[in-house]
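Weekly puzzle thread! Below is a chain. First person to post its structure in C-alpha cell form gets bragging rights.
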Amino acid sequence: MFYGGGAHQLGIQVVGSAVVTITVLVLGLALMYAVKAAGVLRVSEDIEVAGIDIHEHGAPAYHPEYAYMGYSAIPSGKPAGTVSLPAGAASPVGVGE
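Winning reply:
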C-alpha cells in the first residue's frame, strides 16, 4: 500500500494468505484424523491418570518432591504408595533418599 502496490496488491496478499491458511487447516485436520483412525492419538486411560510424563520419560514433569506418591505409570498390583518406574528410569532427586 505504501510503496506503489495499492489496494490491488493488498487484496492479492489477503487472498494468498487465506489460501495458505485454509490449505494448512485442511491438511492438518486430515493428518489428525488419520492418526486418530490409526488409534495412536491418545494414550490409555491408566497412563493418563498416572501421568503421561512418567510413562513417556520415566520422571514427573512437575514437583518431583511429590513424585510417585502412590501413583504408578505401570499397573503392577502393588499396594498404594509403592513405586513402579519403567525399566532403566532414574528416580527423581530427593525421592527414596
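Puzzle host: Confirmed. Bonus trivia for everyone else. Helices lie at 6-38, 45-50, 52-57.
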